Protein backbone atom coordinates (compact mmCIF):
# COMPACT_ATOMS: atom_id res chain seq x y z
CA UNK A 1 0.00 0.00 0.00
CA UNK A 2 2.77 2.43 0.91
CA UNK A 3 4.69 1.63 -2.28
CA UNK A 4 1.60 2.21 -4.41
CA UNK A 5 1.04 5.57 -2.71
CA UNK A 6 4.68 6.51 -3.29
CA UNK A 7 4.43 5.58 -6.98
CA UNK A 8 1.22 7.56 -7.28
CA UNK A 9 2.90 10.63 -5.76
CA UNK A 10 5.79 10.24 -8.22
CA UNK A 11 3.40 10.06 -11.16
CA UNK A 12 1.51 13.08 -9.84
CA UNK A 13 4.78 15.02 -9.65
CA UNK A 14 5.93 13.97 -13.15
CA UNK A 15 2.59 14.92 -14.70
CA UNK A 16 2.51 18.14 -12.66
CA UNK A 17 -0.99 17.51 -11.37
CA UNK A 18 -1.99 19.74 -8.47
CA UNK A 19 -4.54 17.21 -7.26
CA UNK A 20 -3.95 13.53 -6.54
CA UNK A 21 -7.56 12.96 -7.68
CA UNK A 22 -6.58 14.08 -11.19
CA UNK A 23 -3.72 11.59 -11.20
CA UNK A 24 -6.08 8.86 -9.94
CA UNK A 25 -8.51 9.61 -12.75
CA UNK A 26 -5.93 9.40 -15.52
CA UNK A 27 -4.06 6.38 -14.15
CA UNK A 28 -7.36 4.51 -13.79
CA UNK A 29 -8.31 5.37 -17.38
CA UNK A 30 -4.86 4.28 -18.61
CA UNK A 31 -5.14 0.95 -16.79
CA UNK A 32 -8.58 0.30 -18.32
CA UNK A 33 -7.23 1.15 -21.79
CA UNK A 34 -4.22 -1.15 -21.42
CA UNK A 35 -6.40 -4.01 -20.21
CA UNK A 36 -8.76 -3.56 -23.17
CA UNK A 37 -5.94 -3.37 -25.70
CA UNK A 38 -4.24 -6.40 -24.12
CA UNK A 39 -7.43 -8.42 -24.53
CA UNK A 40 -7.67 -7.40 -28.20
CA UNK A 41 -4.06 -8.37 -28.78
CA UNK A 42 -4.57 -11.69 -27.04
CA UNK A 43 -7.55 -12.41 -29.31
CA UNK A 44 -5.50 -11.59 -32.41
CA UNK A 45 -2.69 -13.88 -31.30
CA UNK A 46 -5.16 -16.70 -30.66
CA UNK A 47 -6.68 -16.24 -34.14
CA UNK A 48 -3.21 -16.20 -35.66
CA UNK A 49 -2.33 -19.51 -34.00
CA UNK A 50 -5.55 -21.10 -35.29
CA UNK A 51 -4.75 -20.02 -38.87
CA UNK A 52 -1.21 -21.45 -38.80
* Rg: 16 Å
Mean pLDDT: 84
Shape field: elongated
The end-to-end distance, rounded to whole angstroms, is: 44 Å
Proportion of residues in extended strands: under 5%
Unreliable residue runs: none
Tell me how many strands there are.
0
Sheet with most strands: none
Secondary-structure element series: HH
Which structural category fits the helices and strands? mainly alpha
Number of helices, counting only DSSP H or I runs of 4 residues or more: 2
Residues in helices, as a percent range? over 70%
Task: Record the SSE blueprint.
Blueprint: H1 2-15, H2 20-51
How would you portray this structure in words?
The chain is mostly helical. Helix content is 88%, strand content 0%. The protein contains 2 helices and no strands. Helix 1 crosses helix 2. The longest helix is centred in the C-terminal third of the chain and has 32 residues, at 20-51. The termini are far apart. The mean pLDDT is 84.
Q: What features would you highlight for this structure?
A:
0% strand, 52 residues, single chain
Amino acid sequence: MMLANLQQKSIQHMLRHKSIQTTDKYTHMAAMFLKSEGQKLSSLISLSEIND
